[in-house]
TrEMBL record:
Organism taxonomic ancestry: Bacteria, Pseudomonadati, Pseudomonadota, Alphaproteobacteria, Hyphomicrobiales
GO molecular function: Glc3Man9GlcNAc2 oligosaccharide glucosidase activity
Gene3D superfamilies: 1.50.10.10
InterPro entries referenced in this protein's UniProt entry, alphabetically: 6-hairpin_glycosidase_sf, 6hp_glycosidase-like_sf, Glycoside_hydrolase_63, MGH1-like_GH
Name of this protein: Glucosidase
UniProt record, GO biological process: oligosaccharide metabolic process
Domain Mannosylglycerate hydrolase MGH1-like glycoside hydrolase span(s) in chain numbering: 432-533, 704-874
Length: 901
């Protein structure tokens, strides 16, 4: 008889582990290896900042990394001192399969692109259980073919040449390699590798789980982790490997089936790369032993800083091979019983099932349950140890050649305070194996569904002194820490705070207060740095939407002057309201915060006024003729030119909305008095927002950039299927620009924006993402929230035609639900059994060994919903997990769909 799910996540065994995670150390080991350390900024010591060329894939097997490690299905401790990952060889490849292969930015016709197939299938927040799947072809991996054919497809209008196009998986001639981890205790890690031959013939496979030490000894003294003597792995008389490292208890690495242990050093093969003398048994020695058959390549003394447990298997057609390995404290019993090992995995899997049963207690559809669980697995697998000391990186290491002097004034040279060595949620551990500030805010909101403590920790971390610039700016990403992204962190902090309260029943005001004070510094930075002329109209720069505008918004304008951005200004209005709301929440127990809430209320009003009167000459960001918001180009001669591109830029003002309940005057009397005084004495400000004196449903008060007329006008555009509304969400650029591209001629050049529903056809920001037509989850999610919030004010009587022109009218919350349904249809199986995200490839749509493995892409085709860009960006695309969750069951606790605040 099935067991009823626990009423709340905290009542499950995994929930109890989460509650004790810090005290018991359950987060100490996890999936913290990158999937690509090569080609990153932090490993780049070139003069010109050519990171992809300085340490390419071909060097990765031979060169010791300075700042981190990578691997397939990698696990490590939270300082990445010991690393565990899987290597494979099919007997045909020119190299061991130790890491995922992909093209560099120059090699791909749409920028960098991984050319492997793997999926994150399961995981728990404490990493007590994790599972992922990798598909490895029987035939030689088509490295050269992928590079050559993509090189021939240099036109950005041509589709990418993918691994599935090579025929590598035809006839099922590949191995499914499933890697599971379970922790018997916080430091006792079990690794089970299950190999299934999907092909019609027997096939050989070499399996080499590797344990190694991150190299901390080749660079000169590490201030935070001095290594004298260096770490040591050595084979003991018991047939297991002992791992010793100063400051850590000894560990044991054991195989539960026969294996040959191979040893080398995690050090650079200087002879291969530079023609210089180097270690006798360098990092790629295991590769040379297995692939080249060079027995002398590995250390005959059976010791080193990197080792592998090598076993060879001939897997029959349809056959299964199961292999077991364990990393555990050397002081614990040397347990190698397969039945006991499997019992631990079975118990941890059952606990994972119970955890998700509690989360999904109100989710009846099996496919929805499967997709949501995979989305959350992707979030959990995308944690990474991120290590980067910018000052040390710029100066170079004492034991290495000095970097070019030009680096001291180059990339990130103004961020010398930044010194990171933390577990951080990554956007995608191959295509974006570095944190991105605004992505991380969305990650945290999704994480709060299952692990609010981790979500809170990430938001606090980003605002700590070793991340945030002394001037208050948040670091964008390692390619340019000084770039500017949308300020969504106050929004995220408030959502995480509420979801945490729903799960635990406790309001963590200390968290909210800590992050609030740091975000006030960031808000001040925005006001001082991004408001040219003190007009409360914001230029912003990149603002995260890559190529959405006609100009590169991070570069100097070819026209001169400034670009007054509708989205930059709306983001700041939203930021003001978010900080106002946080201040009011804190004022419940400390009335001092009412004054600060008033400050942000006034900021909001002045921003709203400025959007109507850019420069004081009557030109606004709102266009009355088109009934849409546009960026305005302010030229040096004083002219102001609206750039009439209909894009998400013009919809973001919808997101700046907050509703105050009718009792706010009694709860916050000082705030209410000041607000009424401002509105009475500054009618110019009062006129810019929805009427304060006209309370809505339940006598609530609406704070928004949009009065009713403008909101309805924007929604008419947004809900028009010939413009923004697709079957799978809101497009980033109106489809109307397909027939009528926007053109802006200037000084012999023509700058243009048209509707591009798939990959980018421009090289802006590397060409590997596209905001000119596809569907992106983060903005869509904010629009869903905004519609719900507007609905709290306007009530059930207020309806909008949806879709526009259909004659079908819905309330605003119903429109939010409709948009949510369209977005989740990207990944759910439709009535035809197909998932739009999988595109038109029969292999993915029809093959039973592929069709239920769901990728969470960076963005989606504006017409078909096919997944595009990074294939494992469950970072912000993980927001689908929230949209799949019934609105009344967020964070495992009963929460109103639109909670009173």
């Amino acid at each position: 008889m099935p067991v009823s799910p626990a009423p709340c996540l905290t009542d499950t065994e995994e929930g109890r582990r989460l509650a004790a995670v810090e005290a018991e150390g359950w987060h100490r080991w996890g999936p913290y290896l990158s999937e690509r350390q090569w080609g990153t900024v932090r490993e780049d010591y070139s003069e010109g900042g050519t990171a992809w060329d300085y340490l390419p894939h071909d060097h990765a097997r031979s060169r010791a990394y300075r700042w981190g490690e990578d691997g397939i299905a990698g696990f490590s401790d939270d300082r990445q001192l010991w690393c565990l990952a899987l290597a494979l060889w099919n007997g045909r490849d020119p190299i061991l399969k130790e890491r995922m292969f992909g093209l560099t930015n120059d090699e791909g016709n749409h920028g960098e692109d991984v050319k492997e197939l793997w999926w994150y299938l399961d995981g728990t927040p404490t990493h007590s259980y994790m599972r992922m799947l990798y598909k490895y072809p029987h035939a030689a991996f088509p490295y050269a073919d992928l590079v050559a054919e993509n090189g021939r497809r240099k036109g950005r209008n041509l589709p990418e040449y993918e691994i599935a196009d090579t025929g590598a998986f035809d006839g099922g001639r590949y191995h499914d390699v499933t890697v599971e981890y379970a922790k018997a205790a916080p430091d006792d890690v079990l690794m089970r590798v299950t190999i299934v031959n999907r092909g019609p013939e027997a096939a050989e496979l070499h399996v080499l789980p590797q344990l190694w030490s991150r190299n901390t000894w080749s660079w000169g003294r590490e201030a935070w982790e001095p290594d004298r003597p260096r770490p040591l792995l050595r084979l003991t008389e018991t047939g297991a490997v002992e791992a010793t490292r100063k400051s850590l208890p000894p560990m044991r690495f054991a195989a539960l089936q026969p294996a040959e242990f191979l040893f080398c050093e995690n050090e650079t093969n200087a002879r291969r790369l530079f023609g210089a003398a180097g270690p006798a048994h360098p990092k790629d020695a295991i590769n040379d032993r297995v692939v080249e058959g060079l027995t002398e390549a590995v250390n005959p003394m059976a010791e080193g800083t990197k080792c592998a447990a090598w076993s060879r298997h001939t897997v029959p057609a349809g056959g299964v091979v199961v292999l077991r390995y364990r990393v555990s404290p050397a002081a614990s019993p040397d347990a190698r019983d397969a039945a006991a090992f499997d019992a631990v995995l079975a118990r941890r899997l059952a606990e994972a099932d119970a955890f998700y049963a509690a989360l999904q207690r109100d989710v009846a559809d099996p496919d929805t349950r499967l997709v949501q669980r995979q989305a959350l697995a992707g979030m959990l697998w995308s944690k990474q140890f991120y290590h980067f000391d910018v000052r040390r990186w710029l100066a170079g290491d004492p034991a290495q050649p000095a970097p070019p002097e030009s680096r001291r004034h180059g990339r990130d040279s103004e961020w010398t305070h930044l010194n990171n060595a933390d577990i951080v949620s990554m956007p995608d551990k191959w295509e974006y194996p570095w944190y991105a500030a605004w992505d991380l805010a969305f990650h945290c909101v999704t994480f709060a569904l299952i692990d609010p403590a981790f979500a809170k920790g990430q938001l606090i971390l980003l605002t700590r002194e070793w991340y945030m610039h002394p001037n208050g700016q948040l670091p964008a990403y390692e390619w340019a820490f000084g770039d500017v992204n949308p300020p969504v962190h106050a929004w995220a902090a408030l959502r995480v705070y509420r979801m945490d309260q729903a799960m635990t029943g406790n309001a963590d005001r200390a968290f909210l207060e800590r992050v609030f004070h740091k975000l006030m510094l960031n808000f001040t930075w925005w006001v001082n740095r991004k408001d040219a002329g003190d007009r409360n109209v914001f230029q912003g720069g990149f603002l995260g939407l890559d190529n959405i505008g006609i100009f590169d918004r991070s570069a100097r304008l070819p026209t001169g002057g400034t670009l007054d951005q509708a989205d930059g200004t709306a983001w700041m209005a939203m930021y003001s309201l978010n900080l106002m709301r946080i201040a009011l929440e804190l004022a419940v127990e400390d009335p001092v915060y009412e004054d600060i809430a008033t400050k942000f209320f006034e900021h909001f009003l002045t921003i709203a006024e400025a959007m109507t009167h850019v420069g004081g000459n009557g030109t606004g960001l709102w266009d009355e003729a088109d009934e849409f918001y546009y960026d305005v180009l302010s030229l040096p001669d004083g002219r102001q030119v609206p750039l009439r591109v209909r894009s998400l830029v013009g919809l973001i003002p919808l997101c700046a909305v907050e509703v105050l309940n009718e009792d706010f005057s009694e709860r916050f009397p000082a705030f209410a008095r000041r607000a009424r005084w401002i509105l009475a004495h500054r009618p110019d400000l009062a006129a810019q927002v929805s009427r304060w004196e006209e309370p809505g449903r339940g006598n609530r008060v609406l704070l928004s950039l949009l009065r009713r007329h403008r909101m309805k006008a924007l929604l008419r555009r947004m809900l028009d299927e010939t413009e923004f509304l697709s079957p799978h969400g809101v497009r980033s650029v109106s489809k109307a620009h397909k027939a009528e591209p926007f053109r802006f001629p200037w000084d012999g050049q023509t700058f243009a924006v048209d509707y591009e529903p798939a990959e980018s056809t421009t090289a802006v920001f590397g060409g590997n993402s596209n905001w000119r037509g596809p569907i992106w989850l983060p903005i869509n999610y904010l629009l869903v929230e905004a519609l719900t919030e507007f609905g709290r004010f306007y009530g059930p009587e207020f309806k909008i035609e949806c879709p526009s022109g259909s004659g079908h009218y819905l309330t605003l919350p119903e429109i939010a639900e409709e948009l949510s349904a369209r977005l989740t249809r990207l990944v759910l199986r439709g009535p035809d059994g197909r998932r739009p995200v999988l595109g038109d490839k029969p292999l993915f749509q029809d093959d039973p060994h592929f069709r239920d493995h769901v990728p969470f892409h960076e963005y989606f085709h504006g017409d078909t919903g096919a997944g595009l860009g990074a294939a494992h960006q469950t970072g912000w695309t993980g927001l689908l997990a929230l949209l799949l969750q019934p609105r009344r069951n967020v964070a495992g606790g009963q929460v109103p769909a639109a909670p009173d605040r």
